[in-house]
């Protein structure tokens, strides 16, 4: 069945729009005020139709380069954090002034990975964003780059935007980049053609994805955008990917760029994150009975079914659950530190409660914090 783009976009009452660094800044670093102005005009027009808008904006690091005298994006994390610290303020100020011209108030929301993975933080982020929208504010979201270290980073705003779309129960995610859609190969390669619609994973089988564009400003390239589209569509949210120049047309429902049709249904955000955006910091090998319990019966993982532990992690970290042959069957948030587990393996919860106390009766990975990967 062909989706009527115009109907789909016009019906979307809550829209998350993500814009990449390369669409906001000059190649030499620094915000391009004219591009910010055009983007804000497009978003204000969408608001004018009654839609609520959440903007996920990259560009903090790029915006901080010129003021710090950096000619290119630094590789060192500390320098990136410093650039983000300088650039985020400039970016937020630019947006605030531009939206104010349309009588719209903006609110800055800087998220870290924990804000979508940890239950209490997730609730917080959800409530803040819901309240901002209720008050008619346009939330402007970015990763909190200044405090995020490499272990606890989203690393790219495409996936962050997909998780935010899920967090705010958006009807549509629009990814604006410096390329006008998904091509079957890097657009610089002669003969590459645009895919107007992606309906399922099969449509991606013949696509070759290259790295970020030649500007040296963007980070993820097409891979992170397609990953973001997978996360969002798998959670029931359609995605339009196009260029910032075509943003107005895309939000008016024109057939521009690439539409990724929704494939799945809404799932808990932590499960989306576990499945798509993180990797295990360690692994737990399960015996055959525990694999059956977790995979077929949807049970929590108890100490009795674990035969070995590797890696260095603390309670709350993601770990991979392996079958006896080493294949990954699931990923989950573990509720013990790595060094606590060896003493518990193979023992029943009753035995652990009796010898170590009631705190040791708990599951190693609770079923709500677990996602199957096959
Ligand atoms: N198959 C493809 N289709 C479209 N663009 C691609 C493809 N493979 C690689 N790219 C590149 O991805 C770039 C967009 O990624 P990136 O620079 O990270 O953008 P942004 O800053 O918007 O996040 C495009 O400029 C394009 O050159
Ligand atoms: N959070 C970073 C952006 C990271 C990122 O994903 O950048 P991009 O590929 O341009 O969307 C920043 O504001 O500089």
UniProtKB/TrEMBL annotation:
Reaction(s) the record says it catalyses: L-glutamate + ATP = L-glutamyl 5-phosphate + ADP
Protein name: Glutamate 5-kinase
Family as reported in the entry's similarity comment: Belongs to the glutamate 5-kinase family.
The organism of origin for this protein: Nocardioides furvisabuli
EC category name: transferase
InterPro entries the UniProt entry points to: AceGlu_kinase-like_sf (IPR036393), Asp/Glu/Uridylate_kinase (IPR001048), G5K_ProB (IPR041739), Glu/AcGlu_kinase (IPR001057), Glu_5kinase (IPR011529), Glu_5kinase/COase_Synthase (IPR005715), Glutamate_5-kinase_CS (IPR019797), PUA (IPR002478)
Keywords, alphabetical: Amino-acid biosynthesis, ATP-binding, Cytoplasm, Kinase, Nucleotide-binding, Proline biosynthesis, Transferase
Function: Catalyzes the transfer of a phosphate group to glutamate to form L-glutamate 5-phosphate.
Gene: proB
Sites where the protein binds ATP: 18, 177-178, 219-225
Pathway: Amino-acid biosynthesis; L-proline biosynthesis; L-glutamate 5-semialdehyde from L-glutamate: step 1/2
All copies of domain PUA, residue ranges: 282-366
